[in-house]
Specification:
heterodimer; A: mainly alpha; 12 helices; globular; B: mainly alpha; about 75% helix; about 0% strand
Chain lengths: ~230, ~100
């Protein structure tokens, strides 16, 4: 077994524990995609084209609200802006790989793949083949995400609307920030954003997400100057 | 319209991931930018959570007589205690169903 394959497999294995929440999340997205009227083709292709769960859910949510293209695209951009951080951290480990690799690995740079592969990269400062780890973790996550989406699409076609499964959207987002908002600074940012979203909900074109996120980020910027910010 | 939106959203997402990998030789963001970016989920997700929980289908704010508020509160509590994504989602849905179908 060659070394690259070994590193690739390690990436695949390392990400497995983080897949447990990915499966229900993918199923929820599939169901919501169908319920929000995106249709099975768009729902399925969205998981391939965007491949970022929370922004896909935001997309579906805004689509039912009949938001316009600029609003949906900028909301997706805001939700995914955390990837800038991952990209900056991973960049220092990928300076020597070819452009093709950079493109492929960027596509696979999800929260979960970032978490496990960045850890591996740190432990392997001299390893020339370490990028195979990110290929393994990213690909495994990608594969499971597509399967879960398909499962959700199938379920979405049969689940009755009365079950209110759309409520799984806010619940999923709650579960994604619940650990962060145990910290008071994050809680302040979260409440700011939520209250702004309610106040500005009736702005035209569903722009409230952008307004609320901007308010939250401004408060975060302010907090980063205070003692409330802790590492 | 939907296809243009989808492809643009895909390109924008790819750009956020590729940006620094394409540009940088080293980790380049200032500590302050990193700190602010680390708040992004807390700053964005509540903008989706709050309206979905507190507003009814016509966009009116409803606190009482709104099963979603109680369901979300129980979900937050369970999430806080277990830190489990699955437990949080299932509890919230379970409480909502209980309130809608049985009470």
């Amino acid at each position: 077994m060659n070394i690259q394959y070994k590193i690739f497999s390690k990436g695949c294995l390392d990400v497995i524990p983080l897949l447990i929440p990915v499966v229900p999340f993918g199923i929820i997205f599939g169901v919501i995609g169908i319920e929000s009227g995106l249709g099975s083709t768009v729902t399925f292709l969205m998981s391939i084209i965007i491949f970022a769960g929370s922004s896909q859910l935001a997309f579906a949510q805004l689509f039912t609200g009949e938001a316009t293209t600029p609003v949906i695209v900028s909301s997706v951009a805001i939700v995914n802006s955390r990837h800038f951080l991952y990209s900056a951290v991973i960049a220092q480990y990928l300076t020597k790989v070819k452009l093709f690799w950079k493109i492929v690995l960027s596509y696979f740079l999800t929260d979960q793949a970032f978490i496990v592969s960045q850890k591996y990269f740190k432990q392997q400062p001299k390893n020339k083949d370490r990028h195979y780890h990110l290929l393994g973790s990213g690909f495994t996550l990608w594969f499971v995400w597509q399967l879960s989406t398909i499962a959700g699409i199938v379920l979405g076609e049969v689940i009755p609307k009365q079950l209110n499964l759309a409520f799984a959207v806010p619940l999923t987002f709650i579960s994604l920030i619940i650990v962060d908002i145990k910290k008071i600074d994050h809680l302040i940012v979260a409440i700011t954003s939520g209250v702004f979203a309610i106040i500005f909900f009736n702005l035209p074109l569903r722009t409230y997400i952008i307004v609320a996120a901007a308010a939250g980020i401004l408060v975060a910027y302010g907090l980063s100057h205070t003692k409330l910010y802790r590492k | 319209m939907i296809w243009t939106t989808l492809i643009l959203a895909g390109l924008v997402t790819f750009f956020t991931r590729f940006s620094m990998i394409a540009l940088l030789k080293k980790d380049y963001f200032s500590p302050r930018v990193k700190i602010v970016l680390s708040y992004v989920p807390s700053a964005v997700f509540p903008a989706i959570i709050f309206p979905a929980v507190f507003l009814n289908s016509t966009g009116q704010l409803v606190f009482l007589d709104n099963p979603k508020v109680l369901a979300a509160m129980v979900a937050v509590l369970v999430g806080y205690l277990t830190e489990s994504v699955i437990a949080t989602i299932l509890t919230g849905l379970g409480v909502l169903w209980l309130l809608i179908f049985f009470i």
